[in-house]
Amino acid sequence: MKSLFKVTLLAATTAVALNAPLAFAAEAAKPADAASVSKASFKNDDQKSAYALGASLGRYMENSLKEQEKLGIKLDKSQLIEGVQDAFANKSKLSAEDIEKTLQSFEARVKSAAQEKMEKDAKENADKGTQYRAAFAKEKDVKKTSTGLLYRVEKEGSGDAPKNSDTVVVNYKGTLIDNTEFDSSYNRGEPLSFRLDGVIPGWTEGLKHIKKGGKIKLVIPPELAYGKNGVPGIPANSTLVFDVELLDIKPAAKEDNKAGEKAADAKGATKGK
């Protein structure tokens, strides 16, 4: 993997301007107080483009400093700006070799601090999740399975419960235990359709407790969700809370069922050897 810092100023500037999402670019250009900004005047598009690149780079650098402060690393902004200016003026106070060594050392510090913070956050998430699940387990009508899944059936529904090979259609909202919403089909305006055995174990197990038209609240421990790794928007060791409405169940074709049965038989035979 390439070093995070082995880039030229031009490359970094261009990457920010061309590769960053439009929302980020808009944020980079947004002044702190729009009323205090006078009308910009540029002689041509080249001047305006140069200014835009500089503004994007400046915001990128500012955000980077803030992220590093979260890791306990506080860089001197004035020295950062001076370094940029000296580079343009071709009068760097450090040799190319010194810059390389310094940035390698800095990168190691950032990685170490990030790993330490990740481990600390993961432990805190695990502890808070344990407390949350213990409290939820005491609520009325909450049940706990042998795997640690907690659920409360809000509405049972009718018909048969879904099987692993079935495709289910659901509406749902997913939050962390602090009520931070990380996903919602309601917000997207359309339900989600998926094969029941193709999602996290907490869903595969949990949705079998309701039928078509049913509603359920699932509180899923990390080992039945995304575990120690987490995913974007869901930190490591997170306990997840889902409110799910089972809209429809579409049974798998007979061929799929037979294939699933054969696979299960083969797996059992292998375990028996």
UniProtKB/TrEMBL annotation:
Residues 1-25 form the signal peptide. The keyword Coiled coil applies. Keywords: Coiled coil, Isomerase, Rotamase, Signal. Its EC number is 5.2.1.8. It catalyses: [protein]-peptidylproline (omega=180) = [protein]-peptidylproline (omega=0). The keyword Isomerase applies. It comes from the Bacteria. SUPFAM superfamilies: FKBP-like. PPIases accelerate the folding of proteins. It catalyzes the cis-trans isomerization of proline imidic peptide bonds in oligopeptides. Belongs to the FKBP-type PPIase family. This is Peptidyl-prolyl cis-trans isomerase. It comes from Tenebrionibacter intestinalis. The gene is fkpA.
